[in-house]
Design goal:
Order of helices and strands: HHHHHHHHHH
Number of helices: 10
Largest sheet: none
Strand content: under 5%
Structural class: mainly alpha
Length: 265
Amino acid sequence: MNISVFTIYKIEIFKLIKRKDWLALLALVAISLLLGVAVLSKSYKGPINQSALFWTSSQIINSTSLFITPMIFAFIGSRILASEIEDGSILLYTIRFRNRMKIYLGKSLAIISFATIAFLMDFIINIAIYYVFVCQNPSIGTGKFLGINTLSLVIVTLALYVATFILIAQFSLFLGAFFKPAAVIGIIFATALVVMNTTKVPYFRNLNPMYYVVRINDVVLDKTSQIVVNYSEKLNLFFLLVLLSVIYIIIFNILAVKKLEKSDL
């Protein structure tokens, strides 16, 4: 039966919602909620005069540094492909639809959409935590949405979206074509550990997405006072990050499709 990538995409999005995998996303804001309570109780030790955007960007990078984001998408990515191969449910696709490239691309688009929704949910919930908890302590929360260093914070936030949501989601899906779910989760954790600790290694760092995130961040999330920023440099770093991520995603898709087409499913 001939089927479009978009049809498979819709099926996959429905499956992700029906399986309630989105509940795992609550872990993304767990640390933020705890810190919000700490601010409310005046036990929080962190930058003062934070805007909503500063708070939210800080919490997104915290969830990455603590391996929460990588492990969530390792779990979700392994469910969308590796688990289906392992339990044989992928046969519901391969028997009816012969084009395995379309099957994989549909899943790839679905997990990109899911990662985008996850990012937006994370952003919105962190904003809510800021206004409900953080703003109750005027020395920590200014009550302003943007504040100062706005463009720098926007660039940092978008860089985190590309590197820690989209790219990790795609990597986990790619691994699912080669390994079982437990192996996918283990490899994601090991890769995240390596990537987080090699941002200063010469030559290798240029292939490391987190190197660009660290460079873009620099002191942006360390200070709430006005900082001197070379926006041209930050934008160049951001575009290099996007380009590198696109190259990785294309490679992931090509290799995974070839693997699926050769696999005896």
